[in-house]
Amino acid sequence: MSTGSTVEIKVHDQACRGCEMCVDICPTKVFDFDEEKRLCTVGHAEDCIACLSCAYICPSGAITHDNYHQVKNFYRDLEFSKRMGKFL
Questions:
Q1: 3-state SS class at 61
Q2: Which fold has domain 8-85?
Q3: Is 2 a residue whose pLDDT tops 60?
Q4: Is the Cβ–Cβ distance between 80 and 51 less than 8 Å?
Q5: Sorted alphabetically, which keywords does the UniProt record give (predicted)?
Q6: Residues 31, 40: Cα–Cα separation, whole Å
């Protein structure tokens, strides 16, 4: 099953603590860190595979996802597999 569209990820600035845990855990490097504001930002939403690791690890719950179909074995989803290809 393919999602056919980009996952929508939001980092809520007022909740983000700037700990960079999402930057470190993301397997596809979706996040960037704004040094000036000391906040994480979504830099590459098109690479998101909806593993939700960032949302689970965020201590302040600043990250939300929309427009995704949760797949326990995301590597079996052809669309997500294509996105992962450039990281392997």
A1: coil
A2: Alpha-Beta Plaits (3.30.70)
A3: no
A4: no
A5: Iron, Iron-sulfur, Metal-binding
A6: 7
